[in-house]
Specification:
The protein is α/β, with parallel strands linked by helices and about 290 residues long. It contains three helices and eight strands. It has one domain. It has a five-stranded mixed sheet with strand order 6-4-5-7-8, with helices on one face. Strands 1-2-3 form a three-stranded mixed sheet, with no helix packed on it. α2 packs across α3.
Amino acid sequence: MGKQKGFTPLEIYVRSRASGRSGPLLTGFTLIELLVVIAIIALLMAILMPGLNRAKKQAKAVVCQANLKQMGLAFTMYAEDNNGYLHEEEGSDPCDCWVPALRPYYSHQPAIRVCPTTTKFHSDGVLGPFVGWGIYGEGTIPVVPGYATKGDHGSFGMNSWTANDTGGIHTGKNWRTIHVKGTNLIPAFVDGQHPTGLPEVYDEPPEYDGQCHQKWHGNAMRNFCVNRHNGFVNSVFMDTSVRRVGLKELWTLKWHRAYDTAGPWTSAGGVLQTDWPDWMRSLKDY
């Protein structure tokens, strides 16, 4: 190219570009080229991000099911150590008593009580599908002596119809023992916002996603009907099997001995699409 004395580096680059010959700055990028590269990266990110988000949600769902499996094993081990019978709740607050009853079977890993999609707890003063129960001893959630201890929290609720109780509303309904038929249809723990619940066939669905009843009986299905996994919740059954359960499918599970799985909130029971709240109408029917 010659000596090219008297030219600035930018002039040398421009002349080299114009002549098609190589120059000392030919390996650099123009502003337009740089913008094109940035645009391509942005486009790739836009394409990949939904897939990455789906993969992240699927990974959390897998961990959720793994945790429920461990809870199911703790549930079963307790029963096996007590002649097949489950814990009792009579004379106590059933919201808390399973926590200490099963604690010896999961104390080394209390994190198994939590679904990884859970981001907040009731002690934060909020509700929603990704809100769990507790944290005891924080906010407005008091410690319950003899039951929940400081720091206890979780996002799985127990089907309290499994407990070894016989009186009052429990008469003729509770399973009491793991030695019954159809344990693959009886939920033990389910994704939820409350530590426990006693669902009935007439329980109404939440008016909006995340509306928690906050009580162990009377519309208790709302404790479990939370859109935590894209129209599904995870559940471990009394046989320790784990699977996804559709939100409308919750009304078809065998919650207690007298529970009608073809009740008024099922397709077999004649529920209409318009009977469901708006946020649930597009979900799969059962």
